[in-house]
Amino acid sequence: MSDASTPPALAPWLARQLGRLVEHSGHALLLQGPSGLGQYPLALALAQAWLCHQPITSGGVRRGCGTCAGCHGIAVRTHPDLRVLMPESLMLTLDWPLDESAQKDIDDKKRKPSREIRVDAARDLITFTQRTASGDRGKVVLIYPADRMNGVTANTLLKTLEEPSGDTRFILATEAQHQLLPTIRSRCVAHPMEGPSPEEGVSWLVAHGLPEPLASVLLKAAGGRPEDAKSMAERGWTDARWAAVPKALRAGTVEPLQELGGAELIDVLQKVCHDQLAVQVGGAPRFFAAQSLVSGTSLQALSNWSQALQRSARTADHPFQAGLMLEALVGQARHALSTRGA
Ligand SMILES: [Zn+2]
Predict the structure, then answer these.
(1) Per-residue exposure over 19-57, b if at least 16 CB sit within 10 Å of its own CB, e if not
(2) Ligand 1 centroid vs 54 CA: distance in angstroms?
(3) What's the pLDDT tens digit per position in 195-250?
(4) How many Å lie between the centroid of ligand 1 and the Cα of residue 74?
């Protein structure tokens, strides 16, 4: 892991996007897309490029120099012209300081760190946008994940987005844009996140300590999203365990799927089902290597399974008895995968 004060070099697919975004002249950007593509590091690099006193151009991309007072202020989380709005739990994970009274409440165990962006942040935001920037680079507000604002915070932001003070720019980033208020979305210029090439994704994972072939297998398992692949490795996925899933399901074995939460379990099953269907109709698998899949399946049985999984996905976070749910879902998978095709 890198030290908090020395952010790792920006991944190449993020640097490409930074090159375009840094020239953007609007006052509110929304970085949106599925998880695992790097919304947060891109948002932070953009804030740094905007607030840097002497931006450098590297590979044709204007970015923060990493050494001026502005860049240093961001690295040590004290830049007076950058305001970060995040759930407290995430601020703690990403080494952002909480305000004194919030930190004291948490230290005194009066409450737990919030998992949404608190109303206090809205009040704080108004004060921040109204005061004069301390430097000559304007001010930046970074909100991540923007979908974790509660109604009051979002509506407060709305007013500020409608009537922006001239020198404040907003970067909102989300992995669930459908959960944002439409009124927030409509006031931002949306930037759909772009993913890496498979080679870039694998290099990034190797640089973050995953050996091959684990990096390649999990990148594919995560649908090409490197951060999600890294997090799978941290949760104990190995290349052998991932490759074993389809055949274990046909045998009715629960072992590779034990200890998964409801949502993750259904996600894995949907990936198996997707790839089996893809192969059945002559396409290429997306999440598994072809040799990991089972052959001789029935299109009708797979199609029924796919529909059953969609129904289960709607209730995946419901507190079922985990063991019963796993058994039922594996039974269903076994039936779908062992029904022979015509
Ligand atoms: Zn700088």
Answers:
(1) bebbeeeebbbbbbbebbbbbbbbbbbbbbbbbbeebee
(2) 5
(3) 999 999 999 999 999 999 999 999 999 999 999 999 999 999 999 999 999 999 99
(4) 9
Query: Of 134, 137, 139, 132, which Cα lies nearest the Cα of 53?
Result: 137
CA of residue 289 to ligand 1 center, whole Å: 44
Task: Give pLDDT, residue 7.
Answer: 41
Q: Per-residue pLDDT tens for 121-176?
A: 878 888 898 888 888 899 999 999 999 998 888 888 888 888 777 789 999 999 99
Q: Does the global pTM surpass 0.90? A: no
Closest by CA to 142, choosing from 239, 230, 210, 77, is 77
What is the separation of C-alpha 244 from the centre of its chain, rounded to a whole number of angstroms?
26
Task: Say what angle helices 214-221 and 198-207 make with each other, to 10 degrees.
Answer: 120
Quote the ligand 1 centre to 82 CA distance (angstroms): 14
Please give the distance, rounded to the nearest whole angstrom, from the Cα atom of residue 65 to the centre of ligand 1: 4
CA of residue 52 to ligand 1 center, whole Å = 4
For 27, the token pair is 């006052």
In the reported structure, the alpha carbon of residue 203 is separated from the centroid of ligand 1 by a whole-number distance in angstroms of: 27
173: how many CB neighbours lie within 10 A of its CB? 27
User: Which of 29-33, 60-64, 252-256 ranks highest by mean pLDDT?
Assistant: 29-33
How far is the centre of ligand 1, averaged over its atoms, from the C-alpha of 56 (Å)?
8
Give residue 316's pLDDT band: very low, low, confident or very high (50, 70, 90): low
* Token pair recorded at residue 105: 């409440």
88 C-alpha to center of ligand 1: Å? Answer: 27
- 274's CB contacts (< 8 A; 6+ apart) are 286, 287, 306
In the structure, ligand 1 is a single-atom ion and the residues with CB under 5 Å from it are 52, 64-65, 68, 71
